[in-house]
Predict the 3D structure of the following.
Amino acid sequence: MSFGVFDFLMHFQLQFHGMLSTIGVLDVIDILIITFILYKIYVMVKDTRAITLLKGVGVLIVITAIATWLNLHSTSWLLQRTVTLLFVAMPIVFQPELRRALEHIGQGRFLKTTTNLNYDTRSVVDELVKASKNLSATKTGALIVIERDMRLNDISSTGVPIDGLVTAEFLINIFVKNTPLHDGAVVIRENRVIAAGCLLPLTESRDLSTELGTRHRSAIGLSEQCDALIIIVSEETGTISVAEEGHIMRHLDSDTLKAVLMPLYEVEQHGLFDRFDFLTRKRK
């Protein structure tokens, strides 16, 4: 028995050395490139519903391989056809993720890791926090869309064009109840309010809490389609929330909101919950 194991190990070692001898420098570079691409894809989908769907596809592939190995011909045939149909349907199922990935590539963000802080970002953040705090105290509903790399001209075109400096007073006046623009969203580009009264797409997710109203669902819907960050102030409770990349973080106070907004342009590769986890660890 031990002699058989020794032979197996020797045979495996010879095969391994033979395989290594065929690998050149270009092969190593090729493997590293593929590894990097797969890593970037995983980073983009790890906090989305796509990762659950990919796990399901992986399970089906494993079951298909087992059925083929056991010569379960009917089961194997059915599973193979199912997997083939799934690969055909993937572009439809993963449409939001594919769109986001292509937009990242088109904007050069696939390789980008950081971006510099704009000179006026601190003052803009202070004004946003001040406005959100005031709107929350008066239970005035608000939707504030902060544009990032992806231009939102299609969203801003649904509202009223404005070119005003971002100030707390200006934002508060826009969302005053029973005024023409208070029901829509404000779009901010850099330190300017470019439009108000804008319409946002509703999310199709069915996993959201029933406590979330139209404002929250439209904020999540927009964040699923672009890289914008959206501040939501609830009209019913005055709760401040932030939506990004299809996720929502609720019950923020002024300090937490500022901590989320400040690194927005400084550490672009960090997602919403990465920044929140960092903040939580820092407080501990």
Summary: The domain at 121-283 is CATH 3.40.1700.10 (YojJ-like (1). Residues 113-119, 267-284 have pLDDT under 50 and may be disordered.
